[in-house]
Amino acid sequence: MKKLYSMVRPDWVFGVSGTISAFVAGAQMPLFALGVTQALVSYYMGWETTKREVRKIATLFCGGAVLTVVFHVIEHLSFGIMGERLTLRVREKMFAAILRNEIGWFDSTSHTSAMLASRLETDATLVRTIVVDRSTILLQNVGMIVTSLIIAFILNWRITLVVLATYPLMVSGHISEKMFMKGYGGNLGKSYLKANMLAAEAVSNMRTVAAFCAEEKVIKLYADELKEPGKRSFRRGQGAGVFYGVSQFFLFSSYALALWYGSHLMSKELATFRSVMKSFMVLIVTALAMGETLAMAPDIIKGNQMASSVFDILDRKTEVQIDTGDDIKKVEGVIQLRDVEFRYPSRSAVAVFKGLDLLMKAGKSMALVGMSGSGKSTVLSLILRFYDPIAGKVLIEDIKKLKLKSLRRHIGLVQQEPALFATTIYENILYGKDGATEAEVIEAAKLANAHTFISSLPEGYQTKVGERGVQLSGGQKQRIAIARAIVKDPAILLLDEATSALDVESERVVQQALDRVMKNRTTVMVAHRLSTIKNADVISVIQDGKIIEQGDHQHLIENKNGAYHKLVNLQQQQQQQLQGA
């Protein structure tokens, strides 16, 4: 609770004005009950007295109505501003905390994009509900309870004590009523999370779902995920009905006892009709307020438990520190992996590297080849420090001693499936270097062989690429990704299967762009196609987590028993079979 409420501290002024207004707003209800009872009692008096009393009470009610408008406006405006600012603050902090985590954290099935997006949306709203919305009701009810008890004890302390003794029964009745009206399904947010994730994945992969006519299958899977929450809600509803009936019995029994005791006091001349009726009405209002307040207790406890998921993200310390270390202004481009051992956090039983040694010289290009799953792309991930090795070192001026952002500013990455954002081509290229000029963006596009096709588009560089770049072809997306890497002018360029998904013509255009970009840069490329790797200065063959062969294309192809020769022969045979077909 301390952590939760500390998040609204910047808006304490609104908190003070809202709290005072809530207390005043809460005090209005028992005063209203007192006024109504006084009006009812006055009808048993003489006509002149009745007119005078009703006129006075009506005037007071009109004044109270004006005050109600004023204090409710101040209360809800103050808490509304606090709530909106808190929601904004929590979402910003959560999003920043999510982006701060190491890549291995995102590999977990609990941290998929759909689940994190759902938590970002719901958890911030939940914190607002706990801290602001429920606090508003709580403060208002505290004002109501305090005012009611003061009035009741002044009017008749005997009946007040008797009614207070029955309060547990009264309050339990009101609590059950509130909870029954709200629904007894309970908090099934986590149960529905899988269903939400499934729906989000189906929508984001709609093309695949439609292509394979999988709509019915997805609907069935979604329905299956909803069965368990439905069963739980049904069971809780059955128990709720029984509890509600019993509690209502206690509630009306308490009313009966209070009325009977009031008549008993009147018979002994220890109370008047007026004091009994006023005390009874005011205390009933108090019981309602207490019931409403206590009905929130389970929700607040559950809310606190659920809010802990917010702090799980906010307080988590990333395993790959991004803000500690030295800034680096210039990188020579020498990369060395020394006796590296590595396992993916999500697959800790599988060793990817067992003592990998690799040296990449500055300004030279190195191609990494090998069978699928041999760890080629993992080398790029270690260079970018997406992960830290279990043992050994990755040396680019000793990677662990550098600020992560400072290091990554000197590294460009082009992936097999270029990740474009749903914005303009210009903005996508600008992601490579914040603050790049228009001239730099255009120059990068020219070097990437992208300027011609961009200029031919109706809106040019302001063309929207759509979600994940769906408005563009594979070759066009890849060239924009290359332009994004070029605009930062990196000392190190990493190419992860940059041309493998392209047709022959697109590959030729993209390869021309890459050949131009690779000059005077340390380039590490992961590739299968011979056309991509044969011009590399050094080719390294990875197998079983180690380098088994190294050299240039001519040197390695001459070794007829070598792994590289076998890989090239296999690829040529596949190409011949395709041509024959």
TrEMBL record:
Membrane-topology annotation of the record: Multi-pass membrane protein
Top-level lineage group: Eukaryota
Stored CDD domains: ABC_6TM_Pgp_ABCB1_D2_like (cd18578), ABC_MTABC3_MDL1_MDL2 (cd03249)
Molecular function per GO: ABC-type oligopeptide transporter activity; ATP binding; ATP hydrolysis activity; auxin efflux transmembrane transporter activity; auxin influx transmembrane transporter activity
Example GO BP: oligopeptide export from mitochondrion
Keyword line: ATP-binding, Glycoprotein, Membrane, Nucleotide-binding, Repeat, Transmembrane, Transmembrane helix, Transport
Residue ranges of every copy of the ABC transmembrane type-1 domain listed in the record: 31-302
GO cellular component terms listed in the entry, alphabetical order: mitochondrial inner membrane; plasma membrane
InterPro entries: AAA+_ATPase, ABC1_TM_dom, ABC1_TM_sf, ABC_transporter-like_ATP-bd, ABC_transporter-like_CS, P-loop_NTPase, Type_1_exporter
A matching Pfam family: ABC_membrane
Transmembrane segment boundaries: 20-45, 57-74, 144-171, 241-260, 280-301
Domain ABC transporter: 335-569
Location of this chain's protein in the cell: Cell membrane
Protein family according to the UniProt entry: Belongs to the ABC transporter superfamily. ABCB family. Multidrug resistance exporter (TC 3.A.1.201) subfamily.
Protein name per UniProt: ABC transporter B family member 2-like
Natural source organism: Triticum turgidum subsp. durum
Lineage, highest ranks first: Eukaryota, Viridiplantae, Streptophyta, Embryophyta, Tracheophyta
